[in-house]
Amino acid sequence: MIRFISILCSLVFICNSAAQAPHPSRVDLHFDHWYDYAEMTKAMEELTAAYPELLTMRSLGKSVGDRDIWLVTLNNPDTGSDREKTAMFIDGNIHGNEIQAAETVLYSIWYLCKSYGVIDRITELIDERSFYFVPMANPDGREVWFHDPANPHFLRGGIRPTDNDHDGVADEDGADDLDGDGHITSMWIKNPLGRYKIDEDDPRFFTRVDRNDPPGGWSRLGQEGFDNDDDGQVNEDGIGGYDPNRNWPSDWQPEWIQYGATDYPFSLPETRVIGEFIFDHPNIAAAQSYHNAGGMILYGPNAKYIHYPRADLQVFSAIAEKGGEMLPFYDPMTVHEDLYTVHGGEDGFTYDALGIISFTNELWTDKRMMANGNNPSEEERKTFRDLLQFEDVFVPYHEVEHPQYGTILVGGTKKYSSRVTPPWMLEEGCHRNFAFTMFHADEMPKVAWGALQVQKISNRLWEVTIEVANDKLIPSRTAMAAKHQIGMPDILTCKTSAANSVAASGTVRSLMPNAKLRAQESERPERVVVNNGISSNGSTLFQFIIDGNGSVTFTYAAEKGGTIERTVKLSEQFQPKPIEHKRAIPHDPT
Known about the structure:
By secondary structure, the protein is an alpha+beta fold. Helices cover 24% and strands 27% of the residues. It folds into two domains: 2-145 and 243-364 and 422-442, Aminopeptidase; 447-575, Immunoglobulin-like (Sandwich). β13 and β14 (406-413) form a beta hairpin. The longest helix has 19 residues, at 2-20. The relative contact order is 0.11.
């Protein structure tokens, strides 16, 4: 009997373990390391081959370095084409050194596919929505960071030759990897009057001496490099020298105002092909861009003089606030108020110019080091790097011969010592950001029919009052889009037989008898133009006066909220709004 109970307990444990096991994927991807361009491309190809019923993959175009800018579309064609559905655009790695952004996008594709048909909420999301993914918006910058000498901040831009020092020659004096280890670290030289000394407790660091103390004997020369063009400057004109995330057309400013903006908006092939794709897909209602450092959930305005409608700011705030709950140590922030002014940024383009609710997430935050919500002290930072990273982020100081300075010391932190997420912490960060983005996706507009009332006025005259609802945070047309007439307005049409006609139409405040017809359509009463769309978690009552008998068909078309159709019989009736059983998530946009 005891043996039987032991076996039974073992079986229960096995069953529980199996029930709680991660859902298997058809592609064995691991998120404990970073993928270079070739590996990332291969992973996307394998996913597309393994999930042909959901994924397609194509190149949007070529980068400056002739690399493909890959787009993966996720859609269930059995429930409609991707263009027929409300869609979300997700990209990452527009800055070359911000590598884990691409892993976060790849993780999103992988997790959605392996969860389809297994997790109900994700299955429903995929059936109703479509997704466009561009993991590597800057493939050239990514390749340079992986395979060429680099530091945590380089290469941010791309590889188009740029004359940063205005001497008539481009890219002639960049950093030089003096010791050939693949990392651009710091140079130090002995100097009797130098204000730095080697740290007595930790020789991996230099410390600045107090102004009242004797000189420390060392001076910092900057990043590894030498004067390649004999102009008296070091590392002043390296590869690139521009910023793809300042090349978008909304609030673009020239170089003398916005560094890195390049010659004109969309002058870079990478931003141009992505921008053209977004322009060509007006069904995109939400956008997410992943960057890499700061622990921020960013949204506009990007400059003080840009004003967002209050209704849209409430939507931004509600989504970002939920993100702050889902992403420990992240702060929801307004770009120009809490960070700095950005001219020609991607999220400014997608929202300011196209009315798409857009966020930028900065993925890594040093607050994750000690997991206590505080920025680490220098001692805590050393503990993290020494005991958790096993000193793998340091290049010990060592002597090299410099062509101009003679014998110097070279060393310091490696290119993956900061900004990028440590590989063993990568997957959780990917998942939390993915989950936040899916929350955003789930709040994209979704128009639906509400209450219906049909009342007879006379022998052939009918009053039909019909409600259109949107049970989501994002309106079917954002206030920014409505204000500037961006894209198509929503349209409600009433199709009748040849023997019938629509005499009048408009909106009403209530279902009460003799409700006053507002916003009346006079020229084409069979067609109501809804400039403001259906509001966040709101609904609108429309009324049609119809001359005829039989039935009519209503179609509500929202560019970013979907298209719905309903046939109504002309007979006295009342149907209440269907009850939505929503998840227990607060949706109050105020």
